[in-house]
Amino acid sequence: MATRRIPLVLLACGSFNPITNQHMRLFELARDHMHSTGQYQVVGGIVSPVSDGYGKQGLVLAQHRIAMAKLALQSSDWVTVDEWESQQADWTETVVTMRNHYGRILKEYERSTGENKDSSGNPSPLSSPCPQLKLLCGADFLDTFQVPDLWLDDHVEEVAGHFGLICVSRGGLHPEQAVAASDTLSRHSHNIFLVREWVRNETSATEVRRALRRGLSVKYLIPDSVIEYIHQHNLYTEDSERRNKGTVLRPLAKQATQPGKNVNVAVRKIATLLKPDKDISHDGDHIVIKTLSTFKNYNMDFHVGKEFEEDLSGVDDRKCMTTISWDGDKLVCVQKGEIEGRGWTHWVDGDELHLQLGSQLSNLLAHSLLLLLALRFSVLPLFVHSQPANPCIYLQALIILHTQTSASPAAIMPADFSGKWILESNDIFEEYLKVLDIDFATRKIAISLSQTKVISQDEDKFTVKTLSTFRNYELSFTVGVEFDEHTKGLDNRNIKCLVTWEGDKLVCTQKGEKANRGWKHWIEGDKLFLELTCEDVVCVQVFKRKA
Ligand SMILES: Nc1ncnc2c1ncn2[C@@H]1O[C@H](COP(=O)(O)OP(=O)(O)OP(=O)(O)O)[C@@H](O)[C@H]1O
Ligand SMILES: NC(=O)c1ccc[n+]([C@@H]2O[C@H](COP(=O)(O)O)[C@@H](O)[C@H]2O)c1
């Protein structure tokens, strides 16, 4: 007997700021994929734009995002826009939105099966199987599960385990790795459907907004009706992009103050009202970190490598013998005293400054990581504060910090790029070569070759050698010092270059005949990333450190 398919509803949650053609494609791709399993019959799709309380930079009002999504989806006979989430006063956890929709779906199902019950009240064999609801997302969404304090573990468990996920590939991301890296996701991998989009579409709402601000065409990226709506309401401007700038994303603020996080309610209330500044200055290994707030100020003034007596008045009023030292490019602090294993570690990872606090008291949250979200030279950090005034309580409070120092975190902890790096992936390299006017034959050779980068770094002085069996290229520069480069053997142009630190990224602007030309280098774990930009093409190369 043929098994009957499970009716399935797909739910996509996001900003949809604005909705793009690719958002709508996700539904089509997911439906095809789920039908191909032979198990499911997709019976509907829901777009659920997030509420204004989400706090994401540049988020225009929900009423506009809803209106645009409705206009866009006029062409679909099975995907609809739902306003429930967007109309909630505060931002709503995704799982709460899922429960709400699923409750509604189940009611409808019960109503329909009510008509088909046998004498003992059970659904008759004629009834269709119980419907399911799954969350539809792009590969970047899976990565967000790893961000500390963004998701509650129980919620990830419920989304992946109880409901299920359908995840469509995006850019060079590796959703299968995101699943493998998470215990929760890998436990439910049978309920996570990875959909491969072969016709790659890199449209992102952020890029669409940028183009609109610059007065560039976005035709064929978003529907004409949406373009018209945007122009009528003058939606995406420099002003609208500043909306929520400096605001901590609501999930980060909310999840970190959940009762399940062992937060002292009274202190949490005070802490969440605070807006302290963090002022970091340094002169060689002499570092001063001032944390200033209307509640409490705390200053640290130390020399790396020299033990000193730290008076934690205003924190937990203990004294410690403290030593802060470099461990690679991490700043590691050991605080010897009454509390065992006390200390912290600071490091920079991409645009983020991480602080890991450890102490016997905080074992419950032994790996509580902070994200200090950095925007170019200004950082918007989140601050987790250990306040064991009551030894049973671990306080985790989020405070918004605006760093007002010209010294970026990278100036304190510059990354070390030295080493040999082997090319692993080379995303849209051919488009990049094309935009540099490199001829067909050279392009075909170049994309087929492996590359090795050999980087020597002496503080801010760099030599980067790019080696392949076809051509070698060498570049030397000092961060902050402009230089002339002749791209010999590449596109043979003369350009004026300046490399600067942005966080721990090395960022180069290349001024010359080609617009918007430059590159960025950064390290994540044992990977070296190189983002090459020219005009509107962005190519990402990933290298692996050679042991
Ligand atoms: N090009 C794309 N490929 C695959 N998934 C995508 C793509 N664009 C958006 N998505 C997915 O659509 C959902 C809603 O996305 P969202 O509203 O955040 O748009 P976005 O383009 O990702 O926005 P932003 O550029 O601001 O990050 C998310 O699950 C996201 O991963
Ligand atoms: N804990 C949570 O439920 C949680 C955390 C972060 C984002 N989200 C959701 O993920 C989506 C992300 O959208 P953006 O990619 O536009 O930021 C939003 O719908 C947001 O509400 C949910």
Automatic annotation (TrEMBL):
<dbReference type="InterPro" id="IPR000566">
    <property type="entry name" value="Lipocln_cytosolic_FA-bd_dom"/>
</dbReference>
<dbReference type="GO" id="GO:0004515">
    <property type="term" value="F:nicotinate-nucleotide adenylyltransferase activity"/>
</dbReference>
<keyword id="KW-0845">Vitamin A</keyword>
<dbReference type="GO" id="GO:0016918">
    <property type="term" value="F:retinal binding"/>
</dbReference>
<keyword id="KW-0539">Nucleus</keyword>
<dbReference type="GO" id="GO:0005634">
    <property type="term" value="C:nucleus"/>
</dbReference>
<dbReference type="GO" id="GO:0019841">
    <property type="term" value="F:retinol binding"/>
</dbReference>
<feature type="domain" description="Cytidyltransferase-like">
    <location>
        <begin position="11"/>
        <end position="210"/>
    </location>
</feature>
<keyword id="KW-0683">Retinol-binding</keyword>
<dbReference type="InterPro" id="IPR012674">
    <property type="entry name" value="Calycin"/>
</dbReference>
<dbReference type="GO" id="GO:0009435">
    <property type="term" value="P:NAD+ biosynthetic process"/>
</dbReference>
<dbReference type="GO" id="GO:0005739">
    <property type="term" value="C:mitochondrion"/>
</dbReference>
<comment type="pathway">
    <text>Cofactor biosynthesis; NAD(+) biosynthesis; NAD(+) from nicotinamide D-ribonucleotide: step 1/1.</text>
</comment>
<dbReference type="InterPro" id="IPR005248">
    <property type="entry name" value="NadD/NMNAT"/>
</dbReference>
<keyword id="KW-0597">Phosphoprotein</keyword>
<dbReference type="Pfam" id="PF01467">
    <property type="entry name" value="CTP_transf_like"/>
</dbReference>
<dbReference type="InterPro" id="IPR000463">
    <property type="entry name" value="Fatty_acid-bd"/>
</dbReference>
<comment type="similarity">
    <text>Belongs to the calycin superfamily. Fatty-acid binding protein (FABP) family.</text>
</comment>
<keyword id="KW-0662">Pyridine nucleotide biosynthesis</keyword>
<keyword id="KW-0547">Nucleotide-binding</keyword>
<keyword id="KW-0808">Transferase</keyword>
<feature type="domain" description="Lipocalin/cytosolic fatty-acid binding">
    <location>
        <begin position="418"/>
        <end position="545"/>
    </location>
</feature>
<keyword id="KW-0460">Magnesium</keyword>
<feature type="domain" description="Lipocalin/cytosolic fatty-acid binding">
    <location>
        <begin position="262"/>
        <end position="357"/>
    </location>
</feature>
<protein>
    <recommendedName>
        <fullName>Cellular retinoic acid-binding protein 1</fullName>
        <ecNumber>2.7.7.1</ecNumber>
        <ecNumber>2.7.7.18</ecNumber>
    </recommendedName>
</protein>
<comment type="similarity">
    <text>Belongs to the eukaryotic NMN adenylyltransferase family.</text>
</comment>
<dbReference type="Pfam" id="PF00061">
    <property type="entry name" value="Lipocalin"/>
</dbReference>
<keyword id="KW-0520">NAD</keyword>
<comment type="pathway">
    <text>Cofactor biosynthesis; NAD(+) biosynthesis; deamido-NAD(+) from nicotinate D-ribonucleotide: step 1/1.</text>
</comment>
<dbReference type="GO" id="GO:0005524">
    <property type="term" value="F:ATP binding"/>
</dbReference>
<dbReference type="InterPro" id="IPR014729">
    <property type="entry name" value="Rossmann-like_a/b/a_fold"/>
</dbReference>
<keyword id="KW-0067">ATP-binding</keyword>
<keyword id="KW-0548">Nucleotidyltransferase</keyword>
<comment type="subunit">
    <text>Homohexamer. Interacts with ADPRT/PARP1.</text>
</comment>
<keyword id="KW-0862">Zinc</keyword>
<comment type="function">
    <text>Cytosolic CRABPs may regulate the access of retinoic acid to the nuclear retinoic acid receptors.</text>
</comment>
<dbReference type="InterPro" id="IPR051182">
    <property type="entry name" value="Euk_NMN_adenylyltrnsfrase"/>
</dbReference>
<dbReference type="InterPro" id="IPR004821">
    <property type="entry name" value="Cyt_trans-like"/>
</dbReference>
<dbReference type="InterPro" id="IPR045094">
    <property type="entry name" value="NMNAT_euk"/>
</dbReference>
<dbReference type="GO" id="GO:0000309">
    <property type="term" value="F:nicotinamide-nucleotide adenylyltransferase activity"/>
</dbReference>
